[in-house]
Amino acid sequence: MHRRIFTEEHETFRKTVRSFCEKECTPHVAEWEKNGGPGRDLWLKAGAAGLLGWEVPEEFGGSGVNDFRFNAVLAEEVVASGAEGTSFAVNNDIVVPYLLALATDEQKLRWLPGMVTGEVITAIAMSEPGAGSDVKSIRTTATRQGEDFVVNGAKTFISNGRTATHVIVAAKTDASAGHRGVSLFVVEDGMPGFTHGRQLDKIGIKSSDTSELSFDNVCVPAANLLGEENRGFYALMHNLPRERLGIAVHGVARASRALEVTTEYARSRKAFGQPIGSFQANRFSLAELKTKVDVMQVFVDRCIEEVLAGTLSAEDAAEAKMWVTETEWEVLDRCLQLHGGYGYINEYEIARLWRDGRVQRVYGGTTEIMKEIVGRSMGF
């Protein structure tokens, strides 16, 4: 299906991303899966190629291009190349908007230029061993001491957790105020007491860095408070819709890639003297999957248009995240089934796509949380 949201400029960028991934990413995916992610040198290469921080204003080293379509192009090409371990979306889709909205000019000058060049690699630390989607229940604290805050606590499931040089940490500055007592701090690599902890052994997306973080009396200057004190929860909620749309973009891209490799397999794999795709049951199954992928794409493209217009609601983003990731999983599972026994062999791409896709229904808010958001918006 022809997509109408992209211009020639976006397609030129797509060629740049594809070329970068083919050269710098795809040949190293197996190595990244063994090592739990790429090294920091990849980020410097990505920065030099113009793949990072294009929304950053020119005065801070970026291009000042606020166009989520470029984010979508990057996500689609990263997924198609098998390079999801790069986690560039954490910088581009999540952290850059936080800094543009909340950082002072002094903070922007310190952090944004490095995000464009790849010298500054970021993570955002919300989830804890006992608090995931329930942000108000976080136990990490930040206690004011003079001109500093002392941060104590632990975070888990942190994308870029091992690699990050700068981490946005959600912490309680008023333990008695529930979600109204959450603040955000930028904790920098090398601050005494800040430890990049255990790298987590995941089912899928093994080529990405997902780690635990710990904070033991970390002295964070008040100059690293991001936004207003005790207003962190509202900043988190404001940025979640865009993050969830980013997950949906990845979901459509992965489902589309799975359908592509499965269609090719159905043409080349023969049974009883004919391609397996020529059997009516398989042909009908592929037709259903193609229709689902096309519908997903139209819905997500419409949401991207809402982002561009500044009108994407939390409910629409939740619907996109919920429906796309659930449908993505259906497509992945049926594509694996169409591969037969080969679908369960790791050397086949469909096996990796299937493994990598399962987490989509979990992170960024589980499917059940998305249903809660949509249900409440209906007045229930």
> How are helices and strands ordered from N to C?
HHHHHHEEEEEEEEHEEHHHH
Structural Rg: 21 Å
Name the CATH architecture of the largest domain: Up-down Bundle
Task: Flag low-confidence runs.
Answer: none
Q: Structural class of the helices, strands and pairings?
A: alpha+beta
Helix content: 40-55%
- Strand content is 15-25%
Major beta sheet summary? 4 strands, mixed
Mean pLDDT: 95
Q: Give the CA-based shape.
A: globular
- What is the CA-CA span between the terminal residues? 37 Å
Give the number of DSSP strands.
10
Q: Give, in spatial order, the strands making up the sheet with the most strands.
A: 1-4-5-8
Briefly, what is this?
The protein has 380 residues and is α+β, with helices and mostly antiparallel strands.
